[in-house]
Amino acid sequence: MAGSVTDKLFDKKYTCPICDNNFTAKTVRTGKARMIRTDMDLRNVYEGIEPLKYDIILCQKCGYAALARFFDSVTSVQHKYISEKITPNFKPLQDEGDDYTYDQALARYKVAFANAVVKMAKISEGAYLSLKMAWLCRSYKESLDKDMSGYQEKYEKIEIMERENLRKAYDLFIKAVQKEEFPMCGMDESTVDYILAVLAMEFGDYFDASKLLSKLITSYSAGQRIKDKARDAKEELAKRMKEAGVEA
């Protein structure tokens, strides 16, 4: 791999909408992340860098944090909630240096999720945060050196965190679909239905997964990419149902 991770990053300037603090956050340079594959649940995997580490914008002065797409969108009521409930209890995260470690990135996501709860964000924002945190945990697992001391214990700990966040994402997306309009976090209905189908399969809700995938495959509005992925997922679902002894 040519170049270091820091060559692919730059410090982007932000002004906090809560406390007006001017600060910078690590951001991936355009065109510097080369995607090599996509997981079944739509996690994109990149060569030499993990962009998920840099998706959370965090003000170290007041503790306000959110995904970049939501960072500037704060109502006056949300401003009040964050100022009263987040800022007094916030302790700045440790020095993050030239790059974010996985643990530092996860800490940023946890602060962002706490902010989403406090500001009473849309359910879909919490769902999307949880999904991205699960993806980050998966990336963290893949980055571990199998020869390191305590590898298995560390791997299992991160895997539990991944499963917890996938479950949270699944539950919250189900609620979001019932209460919110599309698009959700930039995703159309077909994309959210596909993610829900894959998560349903992951947690053994095979009937729901099958129903959603069949809906996508026969949909007039779903794009070809999602339809192709739905067909692949349908094959995987059939294998899992057979292994579990569940009739289609």
List keywords for this structure.
single chain; 248 residues; mainly alpha; 2 domains; two-stranded antiparallel sheet; two-stranded antiparallel ribbon
Summarize the structure in words.
The chain has helices spanning 76-85, 102-118, 123-143, 151-179, 189-202, 206-217, 224-243, and strands at 9-15, 22-28, 34-38, 44-47, 56-58, 65-67. The termini are far apart. It is globular, with a radius of gyration of 19 Å. By secondary structure, the protein is mainly alpha-helical. The model has no long low-confidence stretch (mean pLDDT 95). The strands form three sheets. Strands 1-2 form a two-stranded antiparallel ribbon. A two-stranded antiparallel sheet has the order 3-4. It folds into two domains: 5-187, no CATH class; 188-248, no CATH class. The protein is built from seven helices and six strands. Helices cover 50% and strands 12% of the residues. Helix 3 (123-143) runs antiparallel to helix 4 and helix 5 (189-202) packs antiparallel against helix 6.
Task: Record the SSE blueprint.
Elements: E1 9-15, E2 22-28, E3 34-38, E4 44-47, E5 56-58, E6 65-67, H1 76-85, H2 102-118, H3 123-143, H4 151-179, H5 189-202, H6 206-217, H7 224-243
Antiparallel strand pairs: 1-2, 3-4, 5-6
Helix pairs in contact: 2-3, 3-4, 4-5, 5-6, 5-7, 6-7
